[in-house]
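Q: I'm writing up a methods section and want to include an example of the input and output format. Could you take the sequence below and give the corresponding predicted structure tokens, formatted cleanly so I can copy it straight into the document?
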Amino acid sequence: MNDVITTVVFDIGNVLIEWNPEHLYRRLIPDEVERADFLQNVCNMNWNLEQDLGRSWADAVDTLSALHPDKADLIAAYSDQWHEMIPGEVSGTRQILQELQEKNTPLFAVTNFSNEKFAECLVRFPFLKTSFVDTVVSAEERLIKPDPRIYQVLFTRNGLEPGTCLFIDDSAANVEAARNVGMQAHHFKEADALRQDLKNRGLLTN
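A: Here is the clean output for your methods example:
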């Protein structure tokens, strides 16, 4: 029997705000094969995750540009034109967030994000600053999901019982990790399915 959920914990990227390097690099590298090669073998996800673990963007760009000097401008664009990768909010989820707030549901966030880019997003999307009791940012903790220790930071810092928390994330690995530390979880794909799940759990009525 699951505990009664009292608290909702959101991921941010691709749950509340959309992020996809393709939005930028479709313009910079029109050729599909060349673009795929660049995003898989130059500015790939493992390289990006080092920024989520706290490496500065300046160091990241310099290090990678030294390895691929012919791609230096394209590498620099990953940081300099980063916001082009974020066209806006994910449709429907901010409304759900607001409805949960109106019901006085305690809201938290756990996100894999660089300090620099997260600070910029707080300016661009002010609701990210005002919606949550606490936000655990991977770069600040030097821990990234699905490492179970990042969830423990949330629990310890805020006195939360894992079983009373519903965690929402677009990554299956992160959802599984949350369940493994005792949280209830929703694998996010789109807002309507999330809304229905929250209604089924008694957290929303509409």
